[in-house]
């Protein structure tokens, strides 16, 4: 008689590394999907779907992220205050000028699970508009994401 057992990775392999990614001239969606895989831990051999086996990710230069086509003027970001008539709408261009970190965070959050595990994984993402970050003490490794380089359309 065989019984199925839930796989639990050994505790010594559960170390979380820190990676820094430069978003300069990267495509938003392709970069976000790669970052979501690293946050989830899908790039590791001991990946387990119901556990946090991923790494910390620091994204720098979020203000230099690229999008293709007419997304710069037509893509809309919506938020609601919770009050009647409280819907606020903003284009990609305006939000990038005001809060460029939120664009990258929004794209990555949509690619994570919609449950308590997804909320826990999202706390391991750190996004900064400029080239500097305050996480030098964690000694993050440079992570190269091979996406299509941005082209002005």
Automatic annotation (TrEMBL):
<dbReference type="Pfam" id="PF00572">
    <property type="entry name" value="Ribosomal_L13"/>
</dbReference>
<dbReference type="InterPro" id="IPR005823">
    <property type="entry name" value="Ribosomal_uL13_bac-type"/>
</dbReference>
<comment type="subunit">
    <text>Part of the 50S ribosomal subunit.</text>
</comment>
<dbReference type="GO" id="GO:0003735">
    <property type="term" value="F:structural constituent of ribosome"/>
</dbReference>
<dbReference type="GO" id="GO:0006412">
    <property type="term" value="P:translation"/>
</dbReference>
<dbReference type="GO" id="GO:0022625">
    <property type="term" value="C:cytosolic large ribosomal subunit"/>
</dbReference>
<comment type="function">
    <text>This protein is one of the early assembly proteins of the 50S ribosomal subunit, although it is not seen to bind rRNA by itself. It is important during the early stages of 50S assembly.</text>
</comment>
<comment type="similarity">
    <text>Belongs to the universal ribosomal protein uL13 family.</text>
</comment>
<dbReference type="GO" id="GO:0003729">
    <property type="term" value="F:mRNA binding"/>
</dbReference>
<protein>
    <recommendedName>
        <fullName>Large ribosomal subunit protein uL13</fullName>
    </recommendedName>
</protein>
<keyword id="KW-0689">Ribosomal protein</keyword>
<dbReference type="InterPro" id="IPR023563">
    <property type="entry name" value="Ribosomal_uL13_CS"/>
</dbReference>
<keyword id="KW-0687">Ribonucleoprotein</keyword>
<dbReference type="InterPro" id="IPR036899">
    <property type="entry name" value="Ribosomal_uL13_sf"/>
</dbReference>
<dbReference type="InterPro" id="IPR005822">
    <property type="entry name" value="Ribosomal_uL13"/>
</dbReference>
<dbReference type="GO" id="GO:0017148">
    <property type="term" value="P:negative regulation of translation"/>
</dbReference>
